[in-house]
Amino acid sequence: MNETVHTFGWYLRQFVKETREQGGAPVICSLTPRKKLNNEDQFQRDSTTHVAWALAIAKETETLFVDLYEIIARRFETLGSEKVDSLYVPTPTEKLHSGWDGAVVNAE
Fold first, then answer.
1. Which residues sit opposite 98 in a β-bridge?
2. Which helix (H) or strand (E) holds 1?
3. Average pLDDT value over all residues in the chain
4. Using the 8-state DSSP alphabet, how is residue 32 labeled?
């Protein structure tokens, strides 16, 4: 059995197409950021990966785009690194997976 795996962009385009075919209004959100605060509690942005890809597809398909990456990065800067560290599990060295408290902050 062969399985075809497409790019992130292909799947976003497919989501937009299928949503519109069903009469829906698609919305593309950027991915949430990895934890990257420096010693001055400034978030180290990297908008060259999936963030840029999601934005490009949103523009290409004229789809509403919500930049969760930037929204959350700004929130992290206001909270500071000590508080942000406490939002990630299982340890403050974790950079990707937040715990429940981190999920609440991201959802806000």
1. 88
2. none
3. 91
4. P
Among 34, 101, 99, residue whose Cα is nearest residue 72: 34
Cβ atoms of residues 26 and 64 within 8 Å = yes
Instruction: Report pLDDT digits (tens) over 33-57.
Output: 888 888 888 888 877 888 999 999 9
Measure the CA–CA gap between 5 and 70, rounded to whole angstroms.
Answer: 29
Residue 21 vs residues 14, 25, 26, 62: alpha-carbon distances, Å: 10, 10, 10, 15
At 79, the amino acid letter reads L
Instruction: Check: CB of residue 32 under 8 Å from CB of residue 71.
Output: no
Give every CB contact of residue 3 below 8 A, 6+ residues apart in sequence. none
Tell me the pLDDT band of 62, cut-offs 50, 70 and 90. very high
